[in-house]
């Protein structure tokens, strides 16, 4: 991070080897903020309370989406800050990057939000998130044993997701 052209205070972490350690964690939320799926691959710092972690992540996304839509210079109807918007409404938010991670978001028309936290050097993940969403549809939604709105407990989804994420570069 640099402050007004100063020296590098906290450098970016080195690019990890291509061993699947580019992805740190993934969240899948429904439109109501219920975490349907969470998985960690490379998260050295563990959270004490998983439910609190999920609430913080959903709150962060809600705030960022609300903020970006209100800052949209082309939008005519801005509404009140904090008022939820329908998927596809307002300015779209895709990702942000810090010196230690990159957070990428994809929201489906049905309100499913997929959040992937990766190494900061990873490029645009929009197509990857669409592929992960297709895995979700194929192995969870189409599963006759899956009840929509409940946590995803499908081994085929887990296996295919792990295999795909291992190859992210």
UniProtKB/TrEMBL annotation:
It is found in: Endoplasmic reticulum; Golgi apparatus, cis-Golgi network. Belongs to the TRAPP small subunits family. BET5 subfamily. Part of the multisubunit transport protein particle (TRAPP) complex. One of its GO terms (biological process) is endoplasmic reticulum to Golgi vesicle-mediated transport. Keywords: Endoplasmic reticulum, ER-Golgi transport, Golgi apparatus, Transport. This is Trafficking protein particle complex subunit. Its main location: endoplasmic reticulum. The keyword Endoplasmic reticulum applies. The keyword Transport applies.
């Amino acid at each position: 991070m640099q402050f007004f052209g100063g020296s590098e205070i906290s450098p970016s972490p080195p690019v990890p080897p291509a061993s699947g350690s580019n992805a740190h964690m993934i969240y899948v939320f429904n439109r109501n903020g219920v975490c349907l799926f969470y998985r960690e691959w490379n998260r050295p710092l563990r959270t004490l309370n998983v439910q609190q972690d999920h609430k913080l992540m959903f709150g962060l996304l809600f705030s960022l989406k609300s903020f970006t839509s209100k800052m949209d210079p082309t939008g005519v109807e801005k509404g009140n800050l904090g008022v939820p918007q329908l998927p596809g409404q307002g300015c779209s938010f895709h990702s942000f990057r810090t010196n230690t991670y990159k957070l990428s978001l994809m929201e489906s028309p049905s309100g499913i939000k997929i959040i992937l936290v990766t190494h900061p050097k990873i490029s645009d993940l929009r197509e990857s998130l669409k592929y992960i969403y297709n895995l979700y549809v194929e192995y969870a939604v189409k599963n006759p044993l899956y009840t929509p709105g409940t946590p995803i407990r499908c081994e085929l989804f887990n296996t295919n997701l792990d295999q795909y994420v291992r190859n992210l570069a």
